[in-house]
Specification:
This protein is α/β, with parallel strands linked by helices. The termini are far apart. The mean pLDDT is 88.
Length: 550
């Protein structure tokens, strides 16, 4: 058993969480077995897969889901996977990716899903940090040779036993996915006694503020997040829930929404393996999606596609957006395009989901709030002077991860062993006035005005500038120019680029304090974003704080 598997939550805390119904003794394997028995022919996934220039639709029933989880688990067991081992996989958003999550858990292993955007350098680091025993990759995807990248870094991975490739495995000397995992087996893998309070999943953060770290979750921390999330977004009868998303199945929000959440509701996950706004809307109409989750950049594209050609999405109850700042203009645009209010959501890999704007809040409340804490989650805002205002956002509760990995497997940090269980999220927030929070930015992105005493409301400045007709996208950052710190607007132009004077005049007309105005402008073709749509501001700071050539 690896060191990762030994991390667990204190008994007193676990008992309290169970008493409140936030944790349980069962696992998601029990949920899958229940639906496979009670509703074997009901859809578990409705997915679209790229096939050249076309896309095929696959409906996987709960019977097929359960059978494939058992088949994959048997293959992993035959490859020597035992409880506590880490199994990594880097696959597109296919139903196989979701099934592998459950298959790893069925044999007591720790699943390590990784987004397809990772390249050789990041892949090597992620696998070394967890001491993964097996890594499963697609042969080629989106123009990148994943099989070759894994073969290149394999000699640097002393713990790696097997490379498995979905597709052309022979050219890199790897095992074939279908031969060793998807084949029929006489006997299923023995199912060990599963402790729902020990790690079963390791996810790497998006790295939007710098170096990515591994975050460990248990069945129960995922359950707490999925239960609270599902309860606040759908109250439909079993089998009616259709959870669609334009998110990765291999990151935190995607599986929470479309895999673990639907296992609790008996519904189906709806997703594509490659984002296309028109095709996703068509699939949502066909599947009669009841709830949808994405990031702001993707939501803008979907609104445009829906306005060009209207689909019947009257089945939708919820459109949620998270992962990045919610521009205020999205709120009325979602109501017009989809007929439901937009619900802002805040979460992070360490906390799963922390808050959501409620159905009892005003329709436009996502313009002013990131919602109230989900059941089992608590917030506090720590200000420097102890008074009300913007400050560091701390969180504790049933969905908080038990630990993280930074440099390597030997450096595992327990998340909340001090300060009475409070975890500093690294975000700056203030009260929204209705018992919820409003995220103002990251601590790492904090910018002071020229008096060095007032924090600039970066999110508000960005929201206002997005309303400028010449601004397509924008990030406000602090830059060192060799003399001092400047407030820099990094802008993706919409048509002819604006001047700095244009932006400052626009903010003046909006009534914004002059101290908040940018005093430097940089025009770029696109902002660097992670798979969740978050702007990698540290990259922009590095780029524009660098000394300029003479």
């Amino acid at each position: 058993m690896t060191t990762l598997a030994l991390l667990s939550t204190g008994q007193d805390q676990a008992s309290r969480y169970r008493q409140n119904g936030w944790w349980r003794d069962e696992t998601f394997l029990d949920d899958l077995a229940t639906w496979a028995r009670m509703r074997p022919d009901a859809p578990a996934f409705i997915t679209g897969r790229s096939d050249g220039d076309s896309r095929s639709i696959r409906v996987l029933t709960y019977r097929e889901y359960d059978e494939n989880v058992q088949r994959f688990a048997g293959g992993l067991y035959d490859l020597g996977v035992r409880p506590g081992d880490v199994v990594a996989f880097q696959l597109p958003d296919w139903w196989e990716t979701a099934a592998l999550l459950l298959a790893c858990m069925r044999v007591g292993a720790i699943a390590q899903p990784m987004v397809p955007e990772l390249r050789a350098r990041e892949l090597e680091r992620a696998l070394n940090r967890t001491s993964a025993r097996i890594c499963i990759v697609v042969d080629r995807w989106n123009g990148f040779d994943h099989a070759a990248a894994l073969a290149e870094v394999a000699p640097k991975l002393p713990y790696l036993r097997h490379r498995v490739v979905y597709g052309d495995s022979a050219r890199t000397g790897a095992l074939d996915f279908h031969d060793c995992l998807a084949g029929e087996r006489m006997n299923p893998a023995p199912m060990p006694a599963l402790d729902p309070d020990r790690p079963c999943l390791v996810l790497f953060t998006s790295g939007s503020t710098g170096e990515a770290k591994g975050v460990l979750h248990t069945f129960n921390t995922i359950y707490a997040g999925a239960k609270g999330f599902t309860a606040t977004t759908t109250e439909l009868a079993p089998g009616i829930d259709r959870a669609a998303a334009a998110l990765r199945v291999s990151h935190i929000a995607g599986p929470l929404w479309m895999v673990f959440g639907t296992l609790l509701s008996g519904g189906a996950g709806v997703f594509l393996d490659a984002f296309d706004a028109d095709q996703l809307l068509d699939l949502m109409e066909q599947a009669q999606a009841t709830r949808f989750l994405t990031t702001p950049p993707r939501l803008f594209q979907l609104i445009e596609a829906q306005n060009r050609r209207r689909r019947d999405l009257s089945s939708l109850h919820t459109v949620g957006v998270g992962g990045a700042t919610v521009p205020t203009q999205l709120v009325p645009a979602v109501r017009e395009a989809f007929g439901v209010p937009l619900r802002a959501i805040w979460g992070m890999t360490e906390v799963v989901v922390g808050s959501i704007v409620g159905i009892d809040d005003p329709e436009d409340w996502s313009m002013h709030s990131d919602g109230r804490a989900l059941p089992g989650v608590e917030f506090r805002i720590v200000t420097p002077d102890g008074k009300d205002g913007a400050g560091a956002l701390h969180v504790r509760g049933a969905s908080l991860c038990p630990g993280t990995i930074r440099e390597h497997i030997g450096q595992i940090s327990a998340t909340a062993m001090s300060d009475d269980g409070w975890f500093d999220t690294g975000d700056i927030a203030r009260s929204d006035g209705r018992g919820g929070i409003r995220i103002m930015g990251r601590v790492a992105d904090r910018i002071y005005d020229r008096t060095a005493t007032v924090i600039i409301p970066v999110r508000d400045v960005e929201d206002e500038l997005l309303r400028h007709p010449k601004v397509g996208d924008v990030a406000i950052i602090a830059c060192q120019d060799g003399v001092g710190e400047q407030v820099c607007a990094v802008v993706v132009a919409s048509g002819p680029p604006p001047s700095l004077a244009d932006l400052r005049e626009f903010l003046t007309q909006c009534g914004m304090t002059e101290w908040y105005h940018p005093n430097r402008l940089e025009i770029v073709d696109a902002l660097p974003r992670d798979p969740l749509g978050k702007v990698r501001k540290y990259q922009l700071r590095d780029q524009f704080s660098a000394p300029k050539p003479a």
